[in-house]
Amino acid sequence: xxEQIQLHYSMDALEPVIxxxxxETHYGKHHATYxxxxxxxxxxxxxADKTIEEVLANLDGIPDEALRxxxxxxxxGFYNHNLYFQxxxxxxxxAPEGALADAINRDFGSFDxxxxxxxxxxxxxxxxxxxxxxxxxxxxxxxxASPNQxxxxxxxxxxxxxxxxxxxxxxxxxxxKNLRPDYVKAYIGLIDWKTVGExxxxxxx
Length: 205
Prior knowledge:
Layout: H1 20-45, H2 52-57, H3 65-86, H4 98-108, H5 111-124, E1 129-135, E2 141-147, E3 160-166, H6 173-176, H7 180-188, H8 193-203
Helix pairs in contact: 1-3, 4-8, 5-7
């Protein structure tokens, strides 16, 4: 059974950047629904014993079109939201260190340049979707945008997301209304880059 990530902070801990009602709605309702629907679809498709990464990387192997679509949307929503809630913290490290910092400087020139590119793709995503920081097995970093609940895994890139920004309206509209750039900047400011560094290490292992 696929399970929602357990939050390591309280629903009100991210105030004022992310308000309590948004957290309760986003995590408690949207993410919970993706998780339930994923479990239902995975059971019907006979892939409930697979990791979510295996499911998303092998969607073409699901012959039933409706189940394939359900797994793409709900599996992506499950995976993306687990990452989204995992990497933020009210009191985390706000700058990368070690191998991740070295990779960022190599691939983007600077930490500020990475944040600018991650934010730009999030703000520029038409409609609902995400921006991602991902890594390949050689340790190279990439920033990309995906529509809906897609991600670099379901898109077949072979890259592993290690950080993300959610720009579905349910992630920010209660507080920020149509001011998506303000939300994106504030959310990126909550990212715990120590956690992202741990994700980077796992991604190249």
